[in-house]
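S.,

Sequence below, as promised.
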Amino acid sequence: MKLSIVTPVYNERATIEEILRRVEAVGLVDEIIIVDDGSTDGTRELLQEIAPNYPIMRLILHQHNQGKGAAVRTGIQAARCELILIQDADLEYDPRDYSNLLRPIEEGIADVVYGSRFLGAPRRSTMFWHMVANKLLTLMTNILYNSILSDMETGYKLFKSEVIKSIPLRARRFDFEPEVTAKLLKRRIRIFEVPISFNPREYSEGKKIGLGDAFMAAWTLLKYRFVD
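The prediction came back faster than expected:
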């Protein structure tokens, strides 16, 4: 099955070339869709400059910043392959984990695969309170939707294209993760989790998600428990 990578980008000039190199190096990707969400730090100009070096890359430009969720939705709709994987540009997630993510779908036991940061793979030891928030939101997900996920908020989510494109999504910011998880669980889509390595960057290094996004995630989980 062919694989599309969707990478939402906002002001990631320092890391975008390196993540492109890493994605291409694994040799499992058929297209890379970069959605620049109105970057103002020279990211989009750099992407336009290096695009000829990456024949499988497709560049989509948002004229103004709409949020990560909006950029991911744009990329999903543009993807042409049977499988779609979200890959952030900040180097927190390692493309060398792609083969582990793909295996449950290749074996026919899953329609969606989540890469979990909490199943024992190597990870950088930092951001304690961020981890606590993630675990509380995952617990809330499991209570509301009768599931046993270990990492609802993971940025590594792999979908069968036919599954994710059939689900109406409205997220514009970081509420993408709880919205898509809620709607997958309500539809009883087969989700499989696999361990992934994780190298989180801190706020001093450019991390963008904040406390307000945690409250938005909680509200999103509650809302979609009762509406669609």
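The domain at 3-126+154-171+186-202 is CATH 3.90.550.10 (Spore Coat Polysaccharide Biosynthesis Protein SpsA; Chain A).

Coffee later?
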